[in-house]
Design a protein that fits this description.
- Helices cover about 35% and strands about 20% of the residues.
- It is α+β, with helices and mostly antiparallel strands.
- Strand 1 (about 5-10) and strand 2 (about 15-20) form a beta hairpin.
- Helix 3 crosses helix 7 (about 175-190).
- The chain is globular, with a radius of gyration of 18 Å.
């Protein structure tokens, strides 16, 4: 889906309303505690958890198997203990500007939408990005585009100054699921400071 249509119903209280297509946007409106945002904070019932998983999975770009494999692995490997782990939130709008990048021009905010966001204990804010050819090429990936690459790096620096940890994966690293699994196992074990997750049972309706 495109950019959500939002508006402030109370600027003093920072009350935000999704003006159109509210049923297509997931909004979390509770305070984030010292433990970060855990999966159990989003849902505490297995049926609701399966529905939320499937809705999140449906939000992933159809042309990015790398993103799909990252999302699949995290939940597949950890499903039996997912309630105690940080939620992996896909397609998150971290910044907001009502104007498009083209309208804003040189003053545009970079990296408006992130592939994944995790809110970890200790107020750690982690952004995960899976970079395809569109991040630093033009004309369908046939020519390098140094300006696009520079804009991506500038956006990363801005995020880091704002307190985010940014981790980027090359799309080819994650495109093949069998190749991606050991890489992601090591990454998440280090990120979450716990042993690598082994295979876990995923309910049939939440697989794929």
């Amino acid at each position: 889906m495109g950019k959500p249509d939002i508006r402030f119903t109370s600027a003093l209280d920072n009350d935000i309303e999704v003006a159109e297509r509210a049923d297509e946007v997931l909004v979390y409106d509770r305070p984030v505690g010292k433990e970060g945002l855990l999966w159990r904070d989003l849902t505490d019932q297995e049926q609701a958890a399966r529905a939320l998983y499937n809705r999140m999975k449906a939000s992933l770009p159809k042309d990015s198997p790398g993103q799909k494999n990252l999302f699949w692995y995290y939940h597949h490997a950890n499903w039996d203990r997912l309630s105690d782990l940080p939620a992996l939130l896909p397609e998150i709008w971290l910044h907001w500007d009502p104007k498009t990048l083209g309208e804003r021009g040189a003053h545009a905010m970079q990296n408006l939408r992130m592939d994944f966001l995790m809110l970890l204990p200790g107020t750690r804010r982690v952004v995960l990005e899976v970079d395809g050819m569109q991040h630093d090429t033009r004309k369908g990936g046939t020519e390098p585009d140094s300006a696009k690459y520079a804009a991506t790096m500038a956006g990363d620096r801005d995020l880091k100054f704002r307190g985010y940890e940014v981790f980027r994966f090359g799309h080819d690293e994650l495109r093949d699921r069998d190749h991606a699994q050991p890489l992601l196992a090591g990454f998440f074990a280090t990120l979450l400071d716990r042993p690598p997750a082994g295979p876990s049972r995923v309910p049939q309706s939440a697989q794929g």
